[in-house]
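Input/output pair, single chain:
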Amino acid sequence: MVPSARVAAAPRSLTVERYLEAIYYIEHEGEVARPGRLAEWLGVSAPTTTVSLQRLVRDGWVRMGADHAVELTEVGAVAASAIVSRHRIVERWLTDVLGLDWATADREAAELAHGLSELVLDRLDAHLGRPVTCPHGNVIPGRRPPQGRRLARLTDLGEGSAGRVARISEVAEHEAPQLLATLSERGLVPGTDVAVVGADASSRRLDAGAGPFTVEASVARAVWVEEPA
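Output:
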């Protein structure tokens, strides 16, 4: 086992950071990261993923169970949290200051965040007022989540129910690149009140203030809302 201090101090390649970030997002949606899922997520072959995961296990970033479930170690979780923080702070800057749309900001943040020094990142964070969440409502690691009611997926609300959009699933964002553009166009953004006016197995009829519209159930599932009292 590699000592924690040594692992934490070791330089991380962009490849290592991509794996840690992907595993973090999957774990924080209550799902299980597995080699096949990670290969699809990162757009690499299964053999490449196998070799990379072996190195991550060797270096103490992750552990792998007998069922091939991949989990972050304590040190891996700390590193992943820092990586995700960078991404989400840069996203806030790109949307709040530069005015980029959600989908573009997400892509650009993935490229920019890795190269920022700690000094520049801290100054950028301070300039933004130390935001609590990314533009999609996901909490920046290490910061206190906004106070509110219990969260549920929009698909869990029945016809006639209503709630307030709290956050968008990071996993769904990645697996459906058009999702952010669709939600932005429909006004399904954090802080928006939304009502379910119709529901079936494949879609949801919603009203988010700009008039009723229909989205696929897979899109509605990516939206987490505060349940009504």
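The first helix runs from residue 4 to 9. The longest strand covers residues 162-168.
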